[in-house]
Amino acid sequence: MTGFGAASGQDRTPMVPAGATLQIAPNVYVIPDQRVNLVPNIGIIVGGDGVMVVDTGMGPRNAEIVLAEVRKITDKPIRYLAITHFHPEHGMGAQAFPKETLIVVPSAQKRELESKGRAYIELFSGFGPAIAELLKDVELVGADLAFGDRLEIDLGGTPVHLLHYQAAHTLGDMLVHLPEQGILFCGDLVVNRFFPIMPDADASPLGWLDTLDRLRSLKPGIIVPGHGEVGDATLIGELEAYLVGMRTRVHELKGEGKTLDAVRAVVVPEFEDKYQSWDNPNWVKNAVERFYAEL
Ligand SMILES: [Zn+2]
Question: 83 CA distance to ligand 1 centroid (A)?
Fold first, then answer.
């Protein structure tokens, strides 16, 4: 199994970098993934009353690095940890956060962590000993605050909107929107020069396309993708073009009565060829499979 790029491309131990934190706007920071597989971009939002951190890195050791980066910026309390989705590198360092930090996620994500979290730890631990080591002491920490589709938080003069639309990358994807700064933390709903990941049968490419429409309507000026460099709204259009292109091809070929195997054999090389500058092409076949199932 070549899941999550861990067995392809590079196999560096997925550590959140110390000392690389970027300021992307006044009071808004990103710890960049530096394009290392299984390291996410991590957000730090500093409001008048305290801090919100977006995602943790994989396992408590990575989360400790995140906490140390926050302390280089501010000594305000970390009031909230917002987790974009349940995948191990995004939320499975939550136990390292202070007791007073409220963990906030959509209810759909809370349920998904409960039902699939253990299996994902086992899956990821199979990628290699370094990853197994990072995950071995993980406790699945439940949310303190779960919401349906929208929660507005005031960090003290800094409004933060937490949004959940529908199944897309996972069942419980969450976006963190800073409406005043026009910044959108997308989790893996948007990635930059990586193929989008549809890891299991709960991923919905049609839901994903609908979600991208909604992201665009928020008119973000800055997009923080789950993986890859911080960018602007063109990242939404690039991902949409990939998904629309694949939807069209799979629809045509399935309509001709071709089997999944036959469709995969045609479409995978086409898209690998067209997107040579994107990393982790092992994910193209999963996208074909999910479109084939939904169309
Ligand atoms: Zn993910």
Answer: 11
